[in-house]
Design brief:
The complex is a heterodimer. Chain A is mainly alpha-helical. In chain A, 76% of the residues lie in helices and 3% in strands. Chain A has 6 helices and 3 strands. Classes of the chains: A mainly alpha, B mainly alpha.
């Protein structure tokens, strides 16, 4: 099954826009645009705690989300860029086919974050910026392999089934 | 073969999970991890729906996952607004006060400059005094609609990957050349 260009483009540009939006506030602050930066920080405040000590910085200002979240989103984007290349190589494609869309992959990719959070919470060790980035990136890199096949299937199904039936109902109502 | 059951009930359960996780002070900190609570709601909607399917009905599809997750997000946005109002009426700005206490303790522990600490106190006091205005509630609803739908949809897709039947193995895909 080939992943249609439409599905890939939708997810690629969505992910690109989201990643750029994460970088936007510190860049805006760097150029003195305080209000747009505050607005962007406000939007991302709903999806992340934005603690300064837990965040990566650009131009001496924190990104719109914490280091772990940023690693998940950037990891997802980088993995998405590499995804078509990996799927063309026979060996990597075979590995990707084995791991993609399986619940075991989902569990294994979330496990490092759970361990980092859990062990840090019970005081076994202190999670650092590095552990947050590494565990976040692990999930981010794995996510396209979990989501892309399902997304392709969903889009195809919605295009073939839901949309024509919706248009049909409108025509019928007229 | 029987028709598939309606998606509304499963989405409602998913929406309830999202709204509860997002509106209950303290519990809403789960969403600080890339909206994990919202994705959990989308995933829960797919779980409930998959339990309603029998061997007589068509199997769970990825489209079902997307619709269930997105619908759970839309329902949650309205439920969340309602819950927010109820919590505010009962306890006042308790969520903001909890967040204030957490950030305050971190600021105290990290020895930030006095002016930063003072600015933080002033901003928070302003926010607490402002309370819930109709404009704030409207923008809050719009933001919730966008975020809950998007992350609910992702949760629905992940839910599909987890709860699809063994025989429904989806193939990995690469973009068409």
């Amino acid at each position: 099954m080939n992943l249609s260009r439409t599905t890939y483009r939708i997810i690629f540009f969505g992910s690109l826009a989201w990643s750029l939006a994460i970088i936007a506030p510190p860049v805006a602050l760097h150029f003195g645009a305080t209000e747009p930066a505050d607005f962007m920080y406000g939007i991302f405040a709903r999806v992340c705690h934005q603690l300064d000590s837990h965040s990566l910085h650009l131009f001496d200002a924190k990104l719109a989300v914490c280091a772990r979240c940023a690693a998940i989103y950037f990891g997802f984007f980088v993995s998405l860029v590499l995804y078509p290349l990996l799927m063309r190589k026979t060996v990597t494609a075979a590995v990707a086919r084995t791991i993609s869309g399986s619940s075991r992959t989902i569990f294994l990719s979330i496990l490092p974050i759970l361990l980092d959070l859990g062990l840090s919470e019970i005081g076994v060790y202190e999670s650092t910026l590095v552990t947050r980035v590494v565990t976040g990136a692990t999930l981010g890199i794995a996510l396209p392999f979990i989501l892309m096949p399902s997304a392709e299937e969903a889009l195809k199904e919605l295009r073939l089934g839901l949309w024509p039936s919706f248009i049909g109902r409108i025509r019928h109502a007229k | 073969m029987q028709n598939k059951p309606t998606k509304f009930l499963a989405s409602l359960y998913g929406g309830l999970v999202i709204a509860t996780v997002s509106s209950v002070p303290g519990l809403n900190l789960i969403n600080c991890l890339c909206c994990a609570g919202i994705m959990l709601g989308g995933l829960f909607a797919v779980f409930i729906y998959s339990r309603q399917l029998t061997s007589e009905t068509p199997p769970l599809t990825a489209g079902d996952g997307v619709i269930l997750g997105a619908l759970a997000g839309v329902i949650a946005a309205f439920l969340s607004l309602l819950l927010h109002l109820v919590v505010y009426a009962l306890f006042g700005n308790i969520a903001e006060r909890i967040i204030y206490e957490i950030v305050r303790s971190i600021l105290d522990a990290t020895n930030v400059p006095a002016e930063v600490s003072q600015m933080f106190d002033e901003r928070f006091r302003e926010a607490l005094e402002r309370g819930l205005t109709p404009l704030f509630l409207f923008f809050s609803l719009i933001q919730d609609l966008v975020l809950y739908t998007l992350f609910g949809l992702l949760g629905g897709l992940i839910g599909y990957a987890i709860f699809k039947k063994g025989g429904q193995q989806i193939q990995s895909a690469s973009p068409a050349p």
